[in-house]
Design brief:
The complex is a heterodimer. Chain A is mostly helical. Chain A has one domain (63-289): MetI-like fold (Orthogonal Bundle). Chain A is 76% helix and 1% strand. Chain A is built from 13 helices and two strands; from the N terminus they run αββαααααααααααα. In chain A, helix 5 (116-127) crosses helix 8 and helix 10 crosses helix 13 (259-289). The two termini of chain A are 30 Å apart. Chain B is globular, with a radius of gyration of 23 Å. Chain B has 13 helices and no strands. Chain B has helices at residues 2-34, 39-42, 57-66, 68-99, 105-116, 124-133, 140-164, 168-176, 181-210, 214-218, 226-231, 241-261, 263-270. By secondary structure, chain B is mostly helical. Classes of the chains: A mainly alpha, B mainly alpha. At the A-B interface, helix 1, helix 3, helix 4, helix 5 and helix 6 of A face helix 1, helix 4, helix 5, helix 6 and helix 7 of B.
């Protein structure tokens, strides 16, 4: 009897959060879906009409879409490459005992707490500025021609900034996983004469594989929607060289007021993110059972 | 012999570790230093590292010219407000899931997580239009609402993993002793759950403070938090690096300190308990 009562109470206690989240998920998504089938431009009120898949056709055949899709993949892939490899190396170093370990750990995770607009602007101006930036000064110090980062290597520059923000995340998670590695196992391998490299390949790496997967999946979710860094540094340019899918949709919606086209793009973005989410959710769900 | 190698490796790793730490932290340190320079010194070549005339002028200027604290207080209201409302919604929900789980609990949790996977840009258009029609654009209430819903899944998940570690027997014992549900929550559950709730709160304030998609798209000036305020420095109206640095330092300092305090709980919160 008591359980019946508790169960009812439990349902009541869950309902506000569940109902709000449900509305939050379903209402805007249905609206996006609906708009995506309309000709709907805020500059031409009163001309809304149903046009079927025409918005999708325009969006998906627009050369800008393929450039943006490619840019999105390069941005996500490049950042993942730097942060995962860098994160493993950093975690291995931070796992060693040394003087001031705690302080170095604090220094390493700090960039994660810097708001995206700040880190992008600080990098763009004070570090990467082609004349007064610190990198330009270092280049001249060694007798090189300073690089005009955002003109010559726009995408690489953004990847560098985003990787700086996410490297701490990867490091912290991999370090946590590394510290849960059984010390005895490591010692046993050492006793058996396994060298540092084979110990890493056969013992450490397999132990880290789960954490690496988690890092890749979670970062992918966030990196697919990088926005602020592009907005304050390149505005998607030069040309559309650094326009990713979110930025393309933003331009279509809030700069060109093409609600229909932007909605079609939004649905495409949702589909892309869902492919990644599918794997992530399965992984976390498996973990919940243990 | 073994001892000397460990000391030697300790020294080597001290050098490597501190070098890496310094390099990664450098952009933040550089911002901090630049905020005390004059605009002239800030862009000087060769750069001035420590030996320049330190000044507090920029901090003063940022406030008097652009009303910095309006944006700062917007950030505080938005991040703290959305976190508190989120906790009010999530504590009962996580409590129910952790202590009277049903067959569907796991599905509900996974579904909540999946809402977090939805890219914001997918719902930008309708949300912008709803905000416009309801007069919510550039209001703090509107942003508090959006950020509450965005972070609600993380809050529920974090609390759930913390609550699950509280032994249910203790609650049952309290129930046997005749404690009402209200008393059970206030006197038994809450004291044990406070550390978990505190770190959930901390992480969510951080996430909301740094959120830079909705804050950039849904505000312009009145409700603009620091993310939007800093973004206004991107317009190429001359090099105001010292002022940018002063504004940035004030924008990141409180959150950085909170982040350092919550670093132990960070991993659990950010991986939804997948890595502990």
């Amino acid at each position: 009897m008591a359980t019946l009562q508790t169960r009812a109470t439990a349902r009541i206690m869950m309902s506000p959060a569940v109902i709000l989240l449900f509305l939050w998920m379903i209402v805007p998504l249905v609206m996006t879906l609906y708009f995506s089938f309309l000709r709907y431009n805020l500059l031409m009120p009163g001309t809304e009409e149903f046009i079927g898949f025409l918005n999708y056709q325009y969006f998906l055949t627009d050369p800008a879409f393929f450039t943006a899709l490619g840019n999105t993949l390069v941005l996500v892939g490049g950042t993942l490459l730097i942060t995962v490899i860098g994160g493993i190396l950093l975690a291995l170093v931070l796992d060693q005992p040394f003087f001031g370990q705690g302080i170095v750990r604090l220094l390493v995770i700090a960039p994660f707490f810097v708001m995206p607009t700040v880190s992008a602007l600080v990098w763009k101006n004070m570090l990467m500025h082609p004349v007064n930036g610190l990198f330009a000064w270092i280049a001249r110090l060694f007798g090189f021609q300073p690089i005009d980062w955002f003109a010559q290597l726009p995408m690489f520059s953004i990847i560098l900034i985003v990787a700086w923000q996410w490297l701490p995340f990867a490091t912290l998670i991999l370090l946590t996983a590394l510290q849960s590695l059984d010390g005895e196992q490591k010692e046993a391998a050492e006793m058996d004469g396994a060298g540092a490299i084979s110990r890493f390949i056969y013992l450490v790496l397999p132990h880290l594989s789960r954490a690496i997967t988690v890092v890749i999946l979670i970062q992918t979710i966030f990196l697919l929607s990088v926005f602020a860094e592009i907005l304050v540094t390149t505005n998607g340019g030069p040309g559309i060289q650094t326009t990713n899918i979110p930025y393309l949709i933003y331009m279509q919606a809030l700069l060109q007021f093409d609600v229909g086209g932007a909605s079609a793009g939004g649905i495409v973005a949702v589909v892309l993110a869902n492919i990644v989410a599918f794997f992530l959710i399965r992984l976390i769900g498996k973990n919940l059972e243990r | 012999m073994a001892r000397s190698t460990t000391t030697r490796s300790k020294v080597i790793f001290t050098v490597i570790g501190w070098t890496i730490g310094f390099l990664i932290f450098f952009p933040i340190l550089w911002t901090f230093l630049t905020s005390f320079k004059t605009e002239g010194t800030a862009i000087a070549t060769p750069p001035q590292f420590l030996f320049f005339d330190w000044t507090l002028e920029n901090y003063h200027e940022v406030q008097s010219r652009s009303n910095y604290f309006k944006h700062f207080s917007n950030s505080v209201v938005i991040s703290v407000g959305s976190t508190l409302i989120g906790l009010a919604l999530a504590i009962p929900a996580a409590w129910a899931m952790a202590f009277s789980p049903t067959k569907r609990t796991k599905d509900i949790l996974m579904w909540m997580l999946s809402t977090k996977m939805m890219p914001s840009v997918g719902v930008l258009v309708p949300l912008y239009l709803i905000f416009r029609d309801w007069g919510l654009l550039d209001t703090r209430i509107g942003l508090v609402g959006v950020l509450t819903l965005i972070n609600l899944p993380i809050i529920v998940w974090m609390l759930y993993t913390y609550f699950k570690e509280i032994p249910g027997e203790i609650l049952e014992a309290a129930r046997m002793d005749g404690a009402s549900l209200m008393k059970e929550i206030v006197y038994v559950l809450t004291p044990m759950a406070v550390p978990g709730i505190a770190s959930t709160m901390l992480l969510n304030i951080i996430l909301a403070w740094n959120e830079a998609f909705w804050t950039l798209n849904l505000t312009t000036s009145n409700a603009a938090p620091l993310t939007q305020f800093i973004a206004s420095y991107s317009s190429p109206e001359g090099l105001f690096w010292a002022k940018l640095s002063a504004a940035s330092t004030m924008a990141i300092a409180p959150i950085l300190i909170m982040g350092w305090f919550s670093q132990k709980q960070l991993v659990r919160g950010l991986t939804f308990g997948a890595v502990k």
